[in-house]
Write a structure and sequence with these properties.
Structural class: alpha+beta
Number of helices: 4
Helix content: 10-25%
Largest sheet: 6 strands, antiparallel, barrel
CATH architecture of the largest domain: Beta Barrel
Strand order of the largest sheet: 3-12-15-14-13-16
Shape: elongated
Number of domains: 4
């Protein structure tokens, strides 16, 4: 009887403990969507560009040197000044050359008069024809010496042969100058227009030649940091041979340089626009990922990320121009989180504005 009571008491305690224990929770696995920024692939006109580093060169450079010897009497300009064609620059002391001119003129007049006198009497047979020819030759020589004296005197007045900006004056007034001097008096660089010389890889030559048939391939010039447009012009020259050592070819563009922002010797970034692709598919460069088989982007398809292979034709500013993989309008993940994989649920967050591309060049240096 006692044993039965104990059994009932143990059973009752067990039932009470079981009743007080809460049931195990029903654990369900709900995958949370990964928040990402998405943006639509867009179809828009995009330029086909080549970029290179160029150097500004003067279209015409003249080194002013004395053509006669003498004391440099006066300088009529300030170094660094812009001078016009024909503007007076220097004067070499003209006194010795003026005296030489007067002497040469007197000798020429005398020889000419003697030849004229012999001409009249040679016709009458009073002098031989040989004497007359000798007198005429002396008159011609004196005339030539007189003209040379005129030229020498003109060389004492030195004028600018071109319009441009002057450099440093190497010889000051009061010094004796000579054509044999190693130093130039001053150099003049033509500034308007001016040239920009640059090189491109030889593999782009055929494409440049293809579009050269159109009037004027547009060339834009920026500072050496690639920002701050300085000027724009047109391609005017393609060298007649490829540099076999570097595998490049030299081109030149002419720009107006109306504000003189370009200076000879200056390094600049050059953008050459070959053509405009009217319907190019573009996405931000940040969306492009690199895998084992090439480039790809993550596209949102039915709320999940899907890796899609793309072919990048070129980069223009912050945009990648695609030649395959997308047709336009697809929702592309803009900034890819490290844990994003194909098939993962994603949720778009924020509104991203698709800004137009800044026209800079794809690097082909």
């Amino acid at each position: 009887m006692l044993i039965g009571v104990l059994v009932l008491m143990v059973a009752a305690a067990a039932s009470i403990r079981f009743a007080m224990t809460p049931p195990a929770p029903n654990i369900a696995t709900h995958e949370e969507a990964l928040p990402v920024e998405v943006i639509a692939a867009r179809v828009q006109p995009m330029p086909v560009l080549l970029q290179s580093v160029g150097q500004v060169v003067s279209q015409h450079n003249v080194q002013i040197r004395p053509q006669v010897s003498g004391m440099l009497k006066e300088v009529f300009f300030k170094e660094g000044q812009f001078v016009s064609k024909g503007q007076r620059l220097f004067q070499i002391d003209p006194a010795p050359y003026e005296a030489a001119l007067s002497s040469a003129k007197a000798a020429s007049d005398n020889a000419k008069g003697n030849a004229d006198r012999l001409d009249s009497i040679a016709k009458k047979g009073y002098v031989t024809q040989q004497d007359y020819r000798n007198a005429r030759a002396l008159a011609d020589q004196a005339e030539a010496a007189y003209k040379q004296a005129q030229i020498n005197l003109s060389y004492t007045d030195i004028r600018a042969p071109i319009a441009g900006r002057t450099g440093s004056i190497t010889v000051k007034s009061g010094n004796v100058v000579s054509p044999a001097d190693a130093a130039q008096l001053v150099a003049i660089n033509a500034m308007q227009p001016i040239l920009v010389q640059f090189n491109i890889p030889q593999q782009f030559l055929a494409r440049v030649r293809q579009y050269q048939t159109r009037p004027g391939i547009s060339v834009s010039v920026a500072d050496d940091q690639g920002v701050g447009k300085l000027d724009e012009g047109i391609l005017i020259f393609i060298d007649n041979a490829v540099n076999t050592n570097a595998g490049t070819i030299t081109l030149k563009a002419q720009v107006p340089n109306s504000r003189e922002q370009l200076w000879p010797g200056q390094y600049v970034d050059v953008s050459m626009e070959l053509t405009v692709e009217p319907k190019a598919v573009v996405v931000p460069q940040s969306a492009i990922q690199t895998g084992q088989t090439g480039n790809f982007v993550y596209v949102m398809v039915q709320g999940k990320a899907q890796a899609t292979e793309v072919k990048v034709d070129r980069q223009v500013g912050d945009l990648a121009v695609l030649s395959g993989g997308l047709a336009g309008g697809e929702q592309v993940v803009l900034k890819v989180p490290r844990d994003l994989r194909s098939g993962v649920k994603i949720a778009p967050v924020g509104a991203v504005t698709f800004l137009p591309a800044e026209i800079t060049l794809p690097k082909s240096r």
